[in-house]
User: What shape does this take?
Amino acid sequence: MKAGWFSDLIFRRVFKNAGFLLSGKVATGVFGLAYLSLAARGLGIEQFGLLVLVQTYVQVITGLTTFHSWQAVIRYGAISVENDDTPGFQKLISFTTALDIGGVILGAIVAWFAAPLVGPVLGWSDEVIAYAQPYSLLILFTVIATPTGLLRLYDRFDILAWQVVITPATRLIGVTAAVLLDAPLWGYLLAWFVAGVVGGLTLVALGWREGVKQGRLNGMRWSLTGVTTTHTKIWSFCLASNFHSSLQMVTGHMSTLLVGAVATPAAAGLFKVAREVATALTKPAELLTQSIYPEFARLGSTGVWSAFGGLIRRAATLAGSAGLTVLIIMILLGKPFLALVFGPDFSAAYGALVLLVAAAVITISGFSFDPALYAMGRPSVPLKVNVIVVLCVYVPLLVLLTEGMGPLGAGVAMLVSASLIVGTMGLWTRKELRKRF
Assistant: This one.
């Protein structure tokens, strides 16, 4: 049966592209664990927690204020390419680029001026707030959504595979220097900042180069005139997809901030370690999502709905099986791994780690629901599901359980919300597919 699955051209291409990304993410995961390990040992649990909170604060602001316009590039770009509509494609890129630039400017402003207000809630001193403000300028170098969309649209996952290594490799070099120099907190933040700038600018250059190479951006006309006519409902699509991605921030980076606010910076550091390890172990699910979305977009642009269901079932079976294997390994080896890599104090993150990996396994099994619904032009569905579950279930559980259980409580909240989201999304995807037969 599996041999038959992989004889399917689209299914093979999904896993080939995911394989390209995975090759880069393996290196990224190794570098990531290395610099986190060095930072944890070099700073200690309290200072490491502050480093995590500052870095996460900027990530959250970035996620909330910038548009995830790569989804629109793929969704509407696939239609323009299918129709050989170069002017329409250029209007699309003009529109998404304008969103990118406006978002990073807004994000940098918000992050700078919000730091003195948010800092005391997170246990920051005036000195840490003074570090966080200039670090917020990193947001200006995250205009990467449109270039990322171009690379994914044109199946240049090989480029993305090695590009993703640049930031963690640069960060590892910087953190190593900070440890050797016995640098204070600002030295580690500087390493994070420089690495982010280098990685962001590289991705922008590579994405735009590929767009020009494909011929669609030659003689580029920067015009927004008629973009909403050419690309129907693009505003609603972008707003819905951005709001959805922002909600995912709550269950991701925002969780670390909430743990820090409800508990302590040290608890936030423990949760961050657990989350990063769980993310590294389950990264293939995210990579499959990135590689499968262009395939769904192409099928949707040509109306080949019959292939959707089979692609979803095959992907869920393989990804879920792989995730379950990872969970078993982590249950057996998680605690000694944490103590060995991060230090004895961080073995306290074991319970949260197991719960986060279990939540990720559930998410892995349903990784194709979101891109399928986006490709069917229904971004409002994942948005509705996430709004209800995140705001009505996850956040209340996180605050309530973290106060009494620390990082373990945050893990329970994540597991419950993941189960509800994936189950609901699966039923809704099935309903939308039935409408198209």
Summary: The two ends are 25 Å apart (CA to CA). The chain has 19 helices and no strands.
